[in-house]
Each structure stands twice: as structure tokens, then as C-alpha cells.
Design a protein that fits this description.
Elements: E1 3-4, H1 12-17, H2 20-52, H3 56-85, E2 87-88, H4 101-110, H5 112-146, H6 148-154, E3 160-162, E4 165-167, H7 170-207, H8 211-266, H9 271-298, H10 301-306, H11 308-318, E5 323-328, H12 335-356, E6 361-368, E7 371-378, H13 390-400, E8 405-409, E9 416-423
Parallel strand pairs: 5-6
Antiparallel strand pairs: 1-2, 3-4, 6-7, 7-9, 8-9
Helix pairs in contact: 2-3, 2-5, 2-7, 3-4, 3-5, 3-7, 5-7, 6-7, 8-9, 11-12, 12-13
InterPro entries: HATPase_C_sf, HATPase_dom, Put_sensor_dom, Sensor_HK_TwoCompSys, Sig_transdc_His_kin_sub3_dim/P
Keywords: ATP-binding, Kinase, Membrane, Nucleotide-binding, Phosphoprotein, Transferase, Transmembrane, Transmembrane helix, Two-component regulatory system
GO molecular function, one term: kinase activity
Length: about 425
């Protein structure tokens, strides 16, 4: 999208008072110079892109270089629009490197940005010719006609020829002069403004990204920012897990050991005190178990160290319902994606143990191209409804946070199938 540094005046009087009118005039007259310099350079660079591509070793680097050169020249033109009109136009982005010289050269030839910039200079050529007539007509002709009475009085004979019109009296010459002055005051600024608007429209449409391109870039930025938020949340979970494991859990272990030693030293003395110590020792052990379960649910160290296969194997071994596990992830995704997959499986197995009344669970985790697919199937009573269960809604929200998708198929009496697909490219 394009923004101006200040609003362009709409009235002739406002234009006369604004530097925009004079800067726009300079810009329009400068178009002819641009066509003869930058335009010819772009024409030559485009020809190099096309002619260089078939020339293999020498031509392919030339095609890539010429493509980048066109983008650089367009940057000069956007800078000129910014200086003379206050017009801010986002830069077009060259095609990314494809990984090989031949592919890069092919992208350079097919690059729509290259051809948009080429078309800009072709259109500007004809526009510059038009401005060479429009601008002098807007400024010079009215000024000449304003001096017509003096010319008629001192230099003309009985009559003066003005195109198809004949000026044969001072009165007619004065009328023409008044009309020319009115034209200069009210029409000429609007002519320059209209020409400058069209020139700016060309820059915006052909040297800047399209509206769909701007929206796509904005969506890309939002996706990146959301990914950064998700990654920061996962990093915070891992930090909490480390703090709980290395801090509170170790203190509770030390407390439980001290209570155990106190109980052993007390022996059979003071039964009431021994009972209190045993109760405190039991509470400490229970707190340790709860913290261990909590940290395991946040982000177990084995997941970071050894990946999904080892982490989910430990989860399957602890499940009260027999689990048949298969993990086929040859290339590890990011820690964020691994954490989400781990969370989906652990939460699904917890729901199976609580509600499904199942005798068997199958868990499949597989990477297909750039998608990590997690399937959890049980042979329980079914009837799971994401709309009624906060646990399934939480799973769906967490998967959706990374552009993933969660589907649940759970007919009554037919078991439950939960499938999560998460991009991991």
C-alpha cells in the first residue's frame, strides 16, 4: 500500500500554496530523463535476463545479476517519488534463491516483478511524451496569452492569428488574456495534479507490491509473530520444568530424606511424634510424585534429549490401558512441534484411561513431508464430543496455534479416533 507524507491539496488555491505543485512539475518533466536513463538500463537488463538464460555457464549468472539490477533501478524511481511527491511505496521483493543456478535463472525469467517493472518503463515512455506537451501547455501557453494585449498593441499589424481565431482588436486580446489568467490560476494546477496522480498510480501499481501481495506479506508476518509467541511459550514451559525439577523437587526430596532419617532415629519412642513424622514423610513423597507428573506433562527432559519415540514410549509404558505405539519421524521437527505432539498423545491417553473404558489403544506418529500426523485410536465406548469437553477444546486450540488441525471421530459404541496434523516445515 502507498502512503503520502502529507495530504495532496485538492483545490487550485491549496495547490498554489503547496510545494507539491512545483515538485510534481519537476517530477513530470524528469520522467523524460528517467526514460532515457533508467528505462534504457531496464530494457538492457531485461534483454540480458532473456538472452542470458540459454547461455548456460556464462548466461545463467548474468540472468540472475540482471534481474537484481532491475530491482535496484526501480528503487531509484521509488526514491524519486518519495522526494518529489512524498509517496511511500513498499519495495518489490526479488524471487528467493532456489538452491541452484539454473533454477535461479529460470525464476529470474519468470519473475512477475521483473515484468511489472519492465512494463512500468514502457508505459512511462508514452507518459513522458505526454508530459512534454501537458506541462508546457499548462504553464507556458497561459503566460504567453496573458501578454497578448501588449503584443497586439506594439508588434501585431491590423490583426493577430491565434490558431483558428483572429484577434483584430485590443478588446479581444484583453479577453483572451483574462481567460488565460483564469486558466493559469484554476486549471493549470489541476492539470499538474491529475498528471502527477496518474504518474503516482503507475509507481504504486507497477513498482510496488500488489494489494494481494501486501496482504500475503502481512499474513506471513502475522504467522511469524504467532510462531514466535508459540515458541516463547514453549520455552517458558521448559524453563518452568527445569525450575521445578532442579528447585522445588530437589528440596522436597531433601525434606523427605530428612524426615525418613528422623523417623528411623526416633524408633519406637514417642508414637505420636512418629505418626506425625510418617504423615509428613508420606505427604512429601506424594508432593514429589505430583511435581514429577507435572514436569513430565510440561516438557519431559527425555523429549528434548531423545525425541518423540523415547518420550512417548515412556508415556505408553505408564498408561493403564495397553498401548500399541508406532513412531516414524526420520527428521526431528522443532521442539515446539514435538511438545505439541507429545501433549496431544499424553492428553488423549489420559482421556482414554478416564472415560473410554477401552481395552486397547493404538498411537501412530508419522511425518509425511512437512506435516507431522498424530493418530490415537481406542476401542472404547466412544461418544467423545469436543464441544462438551474442555480437554479436547484445549487440544484443538493448541494444535491450531501452529496452523494445525485436530479432528475427532467418536461415534457412540464405536471407539474414538483422534487425528492431529501439524505443519513442521
Amino acid at each position: 500500500m502507498t502512503a503520502a507524507a502529507s495530504p495532496v491539496p485538492r483545490t487550485p488555491w491549496g495547490l498554489w500554496r503547496s510545494p507539491y505543485l512545483w515538485l510534481a512539475t519537476i517530477h513530470l518533466l524528469g520522467d523524460a530523463v528517467v526514460v532515457l536513463t533508467s528505462g534504457l538500463l531496464v530494457l538492457g537488463a531485461t534483454a540480458v535476463v532473456l538472452a542470458g538464460f540459454p547461455l548456460a555457464l556464462i548466461g545463467i549468472p548474468l540472468s540472475r545479476w540482471a534481474n537484481r539490477w532491475v530491482y535496484g533501478i526501480a528503487g531509484w524511481e521509488r526514491a524519486r517519488a518519495r522526494v518529489t511527491r512524498g509517496q511511500e511505496v513498499p519495495a518489490l521483493v526479488p524471487p528467493p534463491r532456489a538452491g541452484s543456478a539454473a533454477k535461479d535463472a529460470a525464476l529470474a525469467v519468470k519473475d512477475p516483478g521483473l515484468w511489472r517493472q519492465f512494463i512500468y518503463y514502457v508505459v512511462l515512455f508514452w507518459a513522458a511524451i505526454a508530459w512534454l506537451f501537458v506541462v508546457p501547455f499548462a504553464w507556458s501557453v497561459p503566460l504567453v496569452l496573458i501578454g497578448l494585449p501588449a503584443y497586439y498593441s506594439y508588434f501585431a499589424a491590423a490583426q493577430a492569428q491565434l490558431g483558428p481565431f483572429v484577434i483584430d482588436s485590443t478588446t479581444r486580446a484583453s479577453v483572451v488574456a483574462v481567460l488565460a489568467a483564469l486558466f493559469l490560476l484554476f486549471v493549470s494546477p489541476l492539470m499538474i495534479r491529475a498528471a502527477s496522480w496518474f504518474d503516482g498510480w503507475l509507481v504504486k501499481e507497477l513498482l510496488g507490491p500488489s494489494e494481494s501481495g501486501v496482504l500475503a506479506e502481512r499474513v506471513h508476518q502475522l504467522v511469524q509473530s504467532r510462531q514466535q509467541v508459540v515458541d516463547s511459550v514453549e520455552a517458558e514451559r521448559r524453563r518452568m520444568e527445569r525450575d521445578l525439577h532442579d528447585g522445588a523437587q530437589q528440596r522436597l526430596v531433601s525434606l523427605a530424606m530428612s524426615l525418613g532419617r528422623a523417623k528411623n532415629r526416633l524408633g519406637d519412642k514417642e508414637p505420636a511424634v512418629r505418626a506425625l513424622i510418617e504423615e509428613a514423610h508420606s505427604e512429601a513423597m506424594q508432593a514429589i510424585a505430583e511435581i514429577r507428573d507435572l514436569t513430565r506433562g510440561l516438557h519431559p527432559p527425555v523429549l528434548t534429549d531423545r525425541g518423540l519415540d523415547a518420550a512417548l514410549s515412556a508415556v505408553a509404558a505408564r498408561s493403564p490401558v495397553p498401548v500399541q505405539l508406532r513412531v516414524d519421524v526420520p527428521v526431528r521437527p522443532s521442539l515446539t512441534i514435538e511438545s505439541i505432539a507429545y501433549f496431544v498423545v499424553t492428553e488423549a491417553l489420559a482421556n482414554v484411561a478416564k472415560y473410554a473404558e477401552a481395552a486397547q489403544v493404538e498411537v501412530l506418529v508419522i511425518r509425511e513431508d512437512d506435516v507431522l500426523r498424530v493418530e490415537v485410536r481406542d476401542n472404547g465406548r466412544g461418544g467423545a464430543d469436543p464441544a462438551r469437553g474442555s480437554g479436547l477444546r484445549g487440544l484443538a486450540d493448541r494444535v491450531a496455534g501452529v496452523d494445525g488441525q485436530l479432528t475427532v471421530d467418536s461415534p457412540p459404541g464405536g471407539g474414538t479416533t483422534l487425528i492431529a496434523e501439524v505443519p513442521c516445515g
